[in-house]
Amino acid sequence: MSAFDPASPLVRRVLCFAAHPDDLDFGASGTVAAWTAAGVDVQYCIMTDGDAGGFDPGHREEIVAMRHEEQRQAARIVGVEHVHFLGERDGYLEPSHDVQRKVVALVRRLRPDVVLAMHPERDWDRLQRSHPDHLACGEAVTRAVYPAVENPYAYPELAAEGLAAYKLEWLLLYGGPAGRENVRVDVTDVFGQKLQALRQHLTQHPDVEKMEAFVRANAGRKAADGGLAAGRLAEAFHAVAVNAADTIAGF
């Protein structure tokens, strides 16, 4: 089985899933910026509206609209023009068949080379990475990409709508246990874009300076763990081959 190469010219379209607005900007926006700079078509799908987020009680009536716009602005900074919102309730996301069906429909419609999603495994070293919605996002996407996306008899109404079954090659997971990480992407040259994207989520950051220091330190640790040169910054992922050359077909 070949290793995943994020810089491969075979990566032409990527569909990225997150539980909340800002999750992708913490976990993967540097990699996304590198992809879009290389001409890769990257699209986002945000599963919940982030309606339980924020710190200002005065924002309750408009928090959904605010967070949608924050995510759109952040996405544009890293070269992403299309942001899909599933509209699930923040804090209530489950890997239900309704959610899985929506994921299958979007993956079959866009037919990406890579699907990127949050990790379905809990990280006991930093529990904040494992918000229940994060785990549900990862579980729903993982269940969707295998077997439902490639099974023509799963959600048959989708095939009737013209969304034919599709074999995805790679699933890339972020925000999981460090022991699962098997791919690191050097994002040093686009790290400024990553921070700028994160700054768009003003409803979520009561202390922007502290947030940026944390993100930089984490990226430095990921780079060091991956053997990159001192001073480099990295994002880390768990790459899973869904359909590789040696994969046995079957549902």
UniProtKB/TrEMBL annotation:
<protein>
    <submittedName>
        <fullName>PIG-L deacetylase family protein</fullName>
        <ecNumber>3.5.1.-</ecNumber>
    </submittedName>
</protein>
<dbReference type="InterPro" id="IPR003737">
    <property type="entry name" value="GlcNAc_PI_deacetylase-related"/>
</dbReference>
<dbReference type="Pfam" id="PF02585">
    <property type="entry name" value="PIG-L"/>
</dbReference>
<keyword id="KW-0378">Hydrolase</keyword>
<dbReference type="GO" id="GO:0016787">
    <property type="term" value="F:hydrolase activity"/>
</dbReference>
<keyword id="KW-0862">Zinc</keyword>
<dbReference type="InterPro" id="IPR024078">
    <property type="entry name" value="LmbE-like_dom_sf"/>
</dbReference>
